[in-house]
Amino acid sequence: MNKVLIIGAGGVGSVVAHKCASVPDVFNDIMLASRTISKCDAIAHNIGKDNIQTAQVDADDVPELVSLIKTYQPSLIINVALPYQDLHIMDACLETGIDYLDTANYEPLEEAKFEYKWQWGYQERFKDKGIMALLGSGFDPGVTNVFTAYAAKHHFDELHTLDIVDCNAGDHGKAFATNFNPEINIREITQKGKYYKDENWIEIPPHSIKKDLHYPHIGPRPSYLIYHEELESLVKHFPTITQARFWMTFSEEYLTHLRVIQNIGMAGIEPVSYEGREIVPLQFLKAVLPDPGSLGENYEGETSIGCRIKGVKDGLEKTYYVYNNCSHQEAYKETGAQGVSYTTGVPAMIGAKMILEKKWGGKGVFNMEQFDPDPFMDDLNRYGLPWEEKIDVDLEVD
Ligand code: NDP
Question: In testing the pocket of ligand 1, which one of 19, 39, 91, 103 has its CB within 8 Å of the most ligand atoms?
């Protein structure tokens, strides 16, 4: 019997719980645990199935988490809390011998810097314990890694350039809101841009390289080169890649708000003293911004995320574009969550399903592209994120 422990009851956790509950032959029993149990209870109530239980847990408190794991005895832990919790939850997995999955790589609270070195550092310990960690099973990272592995398996002898393109053409009707946890999102997009070229990482000022890219069913959108974590693992696992970049769309309105937030110091992560107590400006900002989980009802439009790849097949140059478009409204109708939570939560469920069905397995710490992409690609079509592909088209990314 498969039991899963889902940690984190935010927008993504809600979708993961909904989707796992909809596949009861794989996910026989589900526990949703988070810092605030009332959020878990509300999600379980909405799902309305009797194989979901809830619990309160502070995932940064390893002994508390270990005790919950020992009581519930899950086969797998799905971590959809925040990246700050990753290492603590991995520590609890090591102590209890349980497999681990997440959607975002660890970053330290005091430094907005995400890289895989901390989690890859668990490789030997996970191997010795005989358990596995699957890192980054969301959309990007996650599906983008699987798309790249699928391209390498079926379309190319050698991958040469990779451009991951992430467009959110949705409109939620708010002046400014982030689509997932505001603190994590703003830390990510205010960093310097960075891309991979000829074995070097090149840093650029934030949002200083822009292209108008056309997205299927959407049209042209201004797209900015930013750094994203999957680039690090993809250039490691596909060493023929000479250039790897990540593009994300932002409206002028969004960037203007972001500039103001930064200029007045509200994106700061250093504590400041306010009326006799210490507060972190970005954490205070999170408290006043719209909750990403509440955006779904009025969200219209689609996301479009994919990989644009150049390489060689049978001695000939070839281009390939594989992508998914997801409607915010459809996502909301199905799960009560907007498209960004949906596109993250569905792949987390599928990654967990791959492990529980033993289609993906091993001992140690793995990124998504290290496994056979085919069963995962099939399940994307089956569980709400159908993909399309275009061959030998203009990728617009020269
Ligand atoms: P939310 O802020 O909506 O939810 C996070 C949840 O984690 C909240 O319920 C929060 O509890 C809980 N939590 C925080 N700290 C702890 C703790 N110490 N112990 C237990 N629970 C805790 O975030 P999202 O749902 O938007 O995002 C979830 C994750 O998904 C993030 O890591 C994000 O980076 C990742 N993500 C990945 C994407 C991808 O494509 N790979 C895309 C989008 C997001 P409380 O309710 O009490 O605050």
Answer: 103
Distance of CA 11 from the midpoint of ligand 1 (Å): 7
Task: Check pocket membership of 8 for ligand 1, CB cut-off 6 A.
Answer: yes
In a domain? residue 376:
no
Nearest ligand 1 atom to alpha carbon 182: 2
Question: Cα separation of 215 and 329, whole Å?
Answer: 19
E strand or H helix that includes residue 6: strand 3-7
Nearest-atom index, ligand 1, CA of 291: 3
Q: Which residue shows structure tokens 């002994």?
A: 63
Q: What is the pLDDT of residues 56-68, one digit of tens each?
A: 999 999 999 999 9
- Reported as a single tens digit per residue, the pLDDT across 120-163 is 999 999 999 999 999 999 999 999 999 999 999 999 999 999 99
Atom of ligand 1 at shortest range from CA of 140: 40
Residues 63 and 197 in one domain: no
Domain that holds residue 29: 3-135
**Nearest alpha-carbon partner for 385 in 57, 149, 113, 139:** 139
- CB of 348 shorter than 6 A to ligand 1: no
Which ligand 1 atom is the nearest neighbour of the CA of 188?
Answer: 34
> Ligand 1 centre from 80 Cα, in Å?
5
CATH code for the domain in which residue 293 is found:
3.30.360.10
The kind and range of the H/E element at 305 are strand 302-313
Q: Is 57 in the pocket of ligand 1 (CB under 6 A)?
A: yes
In terms of domains, do 270 and 323 share one? yes
Statement to judge: residues 261 and 279 lie in one domain: yes
Of the candidates 387, 384, 386, the residue with the CA atom closest to the CA atom of residue 16: 384
Secondary structure (3-state) at 232? helix
Residue 114: per-residue pLDDT: 83
- On whether the CB atoms of residues 122 and 365 are closer than 8 A, the answer is yes
The model's pLDDT over 345-358, given as tens digits with 9 standing for 90+, comes to 999 999 999 999 99
CA of 116 to the centre of ligand 1 (A): 18
